[in-house]
Amino acid sequence: MREKFAERSAPTTKTLSAPQRQVYDAVRVAAGQLGYRFVRGGAAQGEYEGVTGVRAGETMGTARQRSMKVSLGRALDGGTEVAVRITEIIEADSSNRAGVATESPLRDPAYYEVFFRQVERALSPDS
Length: 127
Description:
- By secondary structure, this protein is an alpha+beta fold.
- The protein is 29% helix and 36% strand.
């Protein structure tokens, strides 16, 4: 059980051939395009954290939000390794238990590909 949870919560990684500062700037652009608001981090730290706005959940009285944590590091080939972890924060029945929420790893692996495509577009000189 613990192994399965660790596997689900492991970051999704991709290596990009651009320098870390350029990748960081592209991550900020891509995150903004996907609706994330910058919370903390910086190019020098190689970190970006952001959250989306709170939205209505799938059922009445619930709310949801996404949190993104990105770490940047030097790749062996000289590029930049990008590690992304996205979680969903879900508040169930906020009318009865306001402020109580659960956070779980994002279940949609295709969303990570959308994020990486946005980063690559932001890195592209003709974008």
